[in-house]
Amino acid sequence: MIKAHQVSYSHKKYHILKGIDVSIEYGELLAIVGPNGAGKSTLLNVLANELKTKDTERIFFKEKTFSEWNIDDLAKNKAKFSQHNPADIPLLVKDVVIMGRYPFFEASPRREDLEAAENAMRKTDVFHMKNRAYNSLSGGEKQRVHLSRVLAQLENSITHKLLFLDEPLNNLDVKHQHKILKTIKDFTQKANTTIVVIHDLNLAAQFANKVVLMDKGKIVSQGEPSVVFTEDIITKTYGFPCKICDNPITKKPMIIFG
Amino acid sequence: MLNKLNIYIAISFLLLILLSIGALYIGVYNFEDKSPLTVLSNVIFNPAEVSLSEKYVIWDIRLARIVMAILIGSILAVSGTVMQGMFKNPLATPDLIGISAGATLMAAITIVLGAHFKHFLPDFLQFSLLSIAAFIGALGTMLLVYKMSTSNNKTNVVIMLLSGVAISALGFAVVGLLIYLSSEEQLRDLTFWNLGSLGGATWTKNAVLFTVLVFSYVILLPKGKALNAMMLGEKDAEHIGIPVERIKKQIIVLTALMVGTCVAFSGTIGFVGLIVPYILRLLFKSNYQLILPLAAVMGSILLLIADTISRSIVAPSEVPIGVLTAFMGAPVFIAILIRFKNSM
Question: What is A2-257's CATH number?
Answer without folding.
Answer: 3.40.50.300
